[in-house]
Amino acid sequence: MQPIIAVSRLSKKYDSGFEALKGIDLEIARGEIFALLGPNGAGKTTLISIICGIVNASDGAVTVGGHDIVRDYRAARSMIGLVPQELTTDQFESVFDTVSFTRGLFGKAPNPTYIEKILKDLSLYDKRDNKLRELSGGMKRRVLIAKALSHEPDILFLDEPTAGVDVSLRKDMWEVIRKLRESGVTIILTTHYIEEAEEMADRIGIISQGRLLLVERKADLMRKLGVKQLKLEVREPLAFVPESLATYNLELNDEGRTLVYTFDRQGERTRITALLADLQQAGIRVRDLDTHQSSLEDIFVSLVKEQQ
Ligand SMILES: Nc1ncnc2c1ncn2[C@@H]1O[C@H](COP(=O)(O)OP(=O)(O)OP(=O)(O)O)[C@@H](O)[C@H]1O
Fold it and tell me: What domains lie within the chain, and their CATH numbers?
């Protein structure tokens, strides 16, 4: 199927000479949730801003729904809703009016029934006549989403949707985003919160220093790059790992009290049974054991570190 967004060889050099994006290739499928992860200054906002037509690219091309974002700007832009981090609208306007007004900016005829539907979907309907300044932080974020949806876009970009919000509100937002996807909207979000990408995304792109380091289905990424560790707490501290256990590449931590065995969970054999037998053979008695699966965070940190 044709991707809803196709980015090819996209580069951006700012006037200062700084290269914020270096040859990005990326395709987004209709209906997916794609999370763009990266450290500060990686180029996430620049990439989104180019796709949304706010910043010009230096090189490369982007199509949205088959429309070139430069030659066919209006058609491309009308398919996109962008949820910025901050609410900058008039604080004295009502929720309903601000959302309706945004729809008008896209040249769409008024459609109060549609606006009411979005407000209901986002649990803002009760607040439709309230002024923006009367809303809580969480509600203001929902208003941002309502505004971005006001012109019935196919694609929604969310820039750091839960930056600085508390845990329960974050979970609320995740629910809202999931519902939007169920309604057929393609979602692209940038986030610093790895937990957010782990929780929400179908696919993940990791960007660092203007390069896309990888794009993978989340499940594949966790499986491919994730290693598992077995931690064995021993009864008597060890001064060194006995020679007979050399093939396991064990790490000795915690002043000799913990042995760490790293294994590939995809591998045919983990060799755990053999390790336990060999430990016994070596006279090492185990007090406790624990396994640990590397998280998306471990994977992210090691990838970005490798690049630096
Ligand atoms: N107008 C500009 N002129 C020069 N450099 C810029 C400009 N805008 C952004 N940059 C630089 O480009 C790089 C990428 O910025 P960008 O905002 O895209 O990163 P980001 O991944 O969104 O970061 P953050 O997570 O901090 O928002 C940064 O080093 C930034 O300083």
Answer: 5-223 (3.40.50.300), 226-294 (3.30.70.1560)
